[in-house]
């Protein structure tokens, strides 16, 4: 995508004066119209990436390109990008229209033009009826919309959002996620959003960039990240995962058969990062929902002792132990009529067909 990327970070490193490495040789292409999320644990470099894109932080090395042009030296206000900050940074003494119009004040527009653009931006975020309201009188969700309108009023090429929804409570947050995605598709504007909430990243992004210690672990669509994590970090970070040491039993043209203690798993060849030799020890991951539970044994199942359970409404999570002391997590979808399992019970488990991946150890 290097040539037709709208925004590109090219070999960007950021070493702070303190010696802390914020970003370590990050190369990232973002296409026009994409919704990209930067996801990772605290301190992994998400905000630093966004600040380098916006121009608030100069990279120690590497370049920032927009439409193929080097913008590394451009000041923030000379870049056709806009940022929505985590705390919204609204002016409490101004009303909604003044806050939104502030984004336009650096441009020399007539007051009629300003008024028109402010109205359009507020309409976009569904706040037309609050145009004269004081910001201090608004709810969290409404303030968030004002901040969005203020950032969108200049029609930026790219909108950068740093944890834009983190101040909202869970229900409102979910509703705003849907609205944000809808707004983005309607406008066709490129959005780059920082979040440490994987559910949020998975539900609204076209692609997710997983960062860890200043480096990119994987860039992929939500489904690919979930189904085909490339590293143990991603496997462990996205969703719940059983990460298991396994031994290779045999390799056939279609599968690599491994054993996790007494349990055999046939891992499809295209789910193996490497094709290891028999008896090699490999790192295998299998999702909790990819293990099936039954009450009676067959020749495909292994016995498992339930050590504890957690009730999640639509599913029940079982923590089980199989022979050799291996511990596994199993998620069972449930309906009101389905059985619930209790700690202390012995059940019989097997991996569902096609489950599991062999990760590279790198
Ligand atoms: N101005 C600074 N001076 C020194 N170190 C900094 C500075 N800003 C960030 N860092 C360090 O750089 C690393 C990356 O920070 P960054 O703010 O990008 O993390 P983040 O992924 O946004 O984390 P969070 O989820 O906590 O917001 C951290 O180790 C942080 O302590
Ligand atoms: Mg941050």
Protein architecture, described:
With 362 residues, this protein is an alpha+beta fold. The chain has 2 domains: 7-231, Rossmann fold, CATH 3.40.50; 240-359, Nucleic acid-binding proteins (OB fold (Dihydrolipoamide Acetyltransferase, E2P)), CATH 2.40.50. Helices cover 22% and strands 35% of the residues. It has 8 helices and 20 strands. The protein has helices spanning 46-54, 96-102, 111-124, 140-152, 170-187, 198-204, 222-227, 232-237; strands at residues 7-15, 21-30, 35-39, 61-66, 69-70, 81-84, 158-162, 190-195, 207-212, 215-220, 242-251, 255-260, 263-268, 281-286, 291-294, 302-311, 315-322, 326-333, 346-351, 357-359. The chain has a 6-stranded mixed sheet with strand order 6-7-8-3-9-10, sandwiched between helices. Strands 13-12-11-14-20 form a 5-stranded antiparallel sheet. Strand 7 (158-162), helix 5 and strand 8 form a beta-alpha-beta unit. Helix 2 (96-102) runs parallel beside helix 4 (140-152) and helix 3 (111-124) packs across helix 4. The chain is elongated, with a radius of gyration of 25 Å. The model has no long low-confidence stretch (mean pLDDT 92).
Salient structural properties:
six-stranded mixed β-sheet; binds adenosine-5'-triphosphate; 20 strands; Rossmann fold; five-stranded antiparallel β-sheet; 22% helix; single chain; elongated; 362 residues; alpha+beta; binds magnesium ion; 8 helices; OB fold (Dihydrolipoamide Acetyltransferase, E2P)
């Amino acid at each position: 995508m290097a040539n037709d990327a709208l925004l590109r970070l090219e070999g960007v490193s950021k070493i702070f004066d303190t010696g802390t490495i914020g970003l370590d040789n990050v190369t990232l292409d973002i296409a026009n119209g994409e919704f990209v999320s930067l996801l990772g644990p605290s301190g992994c470099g998400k905000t630093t990436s966004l600040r380098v894109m916006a121009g608030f932080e100069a990279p120690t090395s590497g370049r920032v390109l927009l439409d193929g042009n080097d913008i590394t030296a451009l000041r923030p206000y000379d870049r056709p990008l806009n940022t929505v900050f985590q705390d919204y940074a609204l002016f409490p003494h101004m009303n909604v229209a003044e806050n939104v119009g502030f984004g336009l004040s650096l441009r020399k527009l007539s007051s009629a033009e300003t008024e028109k653009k402010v109205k359009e931006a507020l309409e976009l975020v569904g706040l037309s009826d609050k145009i004269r309201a004081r910001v201090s009188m608004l709810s969290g969700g409404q303030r968030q919309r004002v901040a969005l309108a203020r950032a969108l009023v200049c029609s930026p090429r790219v909108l950068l959002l740093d944890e834009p929804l983190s101040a909202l409570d869970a229900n409102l947050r979910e509703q705003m996620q849907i609205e944000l995605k809808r707004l983005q598709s309607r406008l066709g504007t490129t959005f780059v959003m920082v979040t440490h909430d994987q559910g949020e990243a998975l539900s609204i992004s076209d692609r997710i960039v997983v960062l860890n210690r200043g480096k990119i672990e994987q860039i992929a669509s939500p489904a690919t990240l979930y189904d085909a994590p490339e590293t143990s970090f991603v496997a462990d970070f996205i969703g719940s995962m059983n990460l298991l040491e396994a031994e290779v039993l045999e390799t056939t043209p279609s599968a690599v058969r491994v054993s996790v203690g007494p349990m055999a798993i046939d891992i499809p060849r295209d789910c193996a990062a490497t094709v290891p030799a028999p008896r090699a020890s490999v790192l295998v991951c299998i999702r909790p929902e990819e293990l099936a539970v039954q009450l009676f044994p067959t020749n495909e199942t292994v016995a498992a002792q339930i050590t504890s359970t957690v009730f999640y409404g639509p599913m029940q999570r079982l923590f089980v132990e199989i022979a050799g002391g291996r511990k596994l997590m199993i998620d069972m979808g449930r309906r009101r009529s389905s059985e619930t399992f209790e700690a202390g019970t012995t059940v019989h488990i097997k991996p569902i067909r096609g489950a599991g991946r062999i990760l590279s150890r790198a």
